[in-house]
Amino acid sequence: MSPLPESIRRFEPSRRIRHVIYYLTGLVLLIVLYTVAYNYALARLEGANQSIFASFEFVIQTMTTTGYGQDSDIWSHPLMFLFVALIQISGIAVGFFTLRLIIIPLFTSAEVNLDDRLSPKNGHVIICEYRRDSAILLDELREFGIDYVLISSSREDAESLSNRGYAAIHGSPQATTTFERASIKTARTVITDAGDANVNTILTVRGVRPDIDVIALTDDSRMEEILRTVGADTVLSPHGVLGHRLAEKAVASFSSELRDTIELGGDTRLMELPVSESSELVGRSIRETRVRERTGANIVGAWLDGELQLPPSPDAVVRPNTVLLVSGEEAALKNLSEFTRPPRSFTGHERFVLVGLGEVGRAAKSVIEESGGEVVTVDVEDRPGVDIVGDGGAREVLLAAGVESAGAIIIGVPDDSIALLTTVLAQSINPEIEVLTRVGDAEATQKAFSAGADYVLSVPRVSARMVAKELRGEDVLAPASQIRLVRVPSTPFSGSTLGNSRIYERTGCRVIAIEDGDGQTVSVDPQRQFSGDERITIVGGDEAVQKFLKRFDVSPTDLP
C-alpha cells in the first residue's frame, strides 16, 4: 500500500476548519441517533414497522423543516409527540448554527473586488502606502474637494478603508497593473509614503507616466537627494518639519524675535503666540488683558482647551496652553510677545532638554543651536550627538539632563506612552518648564494637553497638512498649524458691506485683511461696501474655511 503524499500527512487545518469538521461530525452522529431512535419508537410505541431509510427521510425532513406529513397520522402516544417536538426544536438550532458557522463566514470571507467600488477618476491623486493614519489625510483631501485613490499592499487595511467609504484598493505600488487600475493615465499627482520601497515605487510610476507629478514622504531627510534623483518632484519630511516647529515654539517662548509671521499687506502681520504658564495673561479673561490698548495688536482668534474660537469670547479665560492668533504691525506683535512669554529674556545660556534624537530631535536640535541656546539631548541609543543615554520616561534620567533648571523640554520620542509619561514627569520635576510634545496618534493630542504639555503636534495631522498644502498651494501659518489662511476674491459680496455679508455667522471664518483693486491694504470696516475687485483674507479652522469656499463658490488665490 503506497503511503499518503507528504502534503496530506503534514496538513494542519486552521482553528475554524477544525470547528467545522467537529460540527459536521456531530451533526451526522445526531442524525443517525435520531433515525435509529425514531424507527425504534415507531415499532415499540405505535406498533408500526418501517424501513430505516424511511425513518432517515423523516428525520431529514423534520430537521430541515421541509415537511413530514406522511407519518403524522401514525402518532398517538404522548412520548412520540414529545420526541418529534425534540427533533423539530433541535432542527431549528442546527439551522442557526449552520448559518452562523458555515454559511455567513463563507460569503463574508469571499474576496471583494475593491476596484468595483471606485467611481470614474480624472484629475485625481494616487496615494501609495500612506502610513500616518490614512483616514486623517483622506478626510483632509475630501474636505478640500480633492479626488483620490489610495493603494495599500495590505488587503485588510484596504478593505477596512473601503468599507468606511474611502476610495481604496489593494495592490502593490511596485506593480504597473496596480497603477493602471488606479487610473494613473488621468491622474495629476502620485504621492508615495512607502518607506524603503519609495525608490521602487517612484521608478514604477516613471515607467508608466514620466510626466506625472510625484510627491514623496520620508522619515529621513537625508533621503531627499536620492528620492529626487530617481524622479520625485517634491520630497516632504513631516518629522523634520514637526521638529523645527517644536523647537521654534520653544525658542519663541523666551525670545522677542518674531517667527512664522505672514504679511497680510502693508505693515500688518499675522502670527500665533503660545501663552507661557508664567505669563501675566494667564487667569485673565480676553477682555481683562486689554491687549489692543496695551500693545496695538489685535487678538483675531485663540485656541482655548483645544478649540479654535474666532474671535474668542471676551469672557474666555486665558490658560497656560492657550495659543493666541494675533495681527498687527511688527512693533505691536513684539510688545504682545513680552506678555505671553516667561518673565525672563532668552540668553545664550538658556538650557533646553531634548528627549529623542531621531528625525524630529535632530531637526529641533539644529534650530536651538542656531538660536544660540544650550541643548542637552537624551536618547535610549548611544549615537552621535546624544549627551545622556537613557529612557526619557525615567525620573533619574530627566534629573541628569537638568530638567529642574531648564527653560523648556522638547519630547520627540516615537512612543506616545513614553511621551505622555515624560510630559508628566517633567512637569512634576519643574512646574515652570515649557513642555512641547510630539505624538504619533492624533487622538493622543488632548491627552498630552491633559498631562501638562504646553504645545502639542501630531505626526498624522502635520503630514496631512503638508500634503494638502502642496496639492492646494494655499498658505497657512505653518505646515504644523491647525489654522488655515486663504485669500479669495470679493466677487460674491459685490454691492454688499462686510457687515451685511455675515461671513463669520454663516461660515465661522473671519475677515482679517482687505486689499483693494489697486493692491493697497485698506482697513477692515464693517460698513465698507465691496465693489467686487477686492481680495479678502480670511482665517479659520479646517471645516470653516472649506465651508466658506463651498458656500460662496470661490477658489483661494496666492498669499504674498
Automatic annotation (TrEMBL):
Q: What is a single Pfam family found in this protein's UniProt entry? A: TrkA_C
Residue ranges of every copy of the RCK C-terminal domain listed in the record: 259-342
Signal peptide positions on this chain: none
The record's section on PROSITE patterns has: RCK_C, RCK_N
Keywords, sorted A to Z? Membrane, Transmembrane, Transmembrane helix
Q: Which residues cross the membrane?
A: 20-41, 79-99
Which GO BP terms apply?
potassium ion transport
The reply on keyword Membrane is: yes
Which Gene3D superfamilies does the UniProt record give?
Answer: 1.10.287.70, NAD(P)-binding Rossmann-like Domain, Regulator of K+ conductance, C-terminal domain
Which segments constitute the RCK N-terminal domain?
Answer: 122-236
Q: Which GO terms describe its molecular function?
A: monoatomic cation transmembrane transporter activity
The protein here is known as: Potassium transporter TrkA
Lineage of the species this protein comes from: Archaea, Methanobacteriati, Methanobacteriota, Stenosarchaea group, Halobacteria
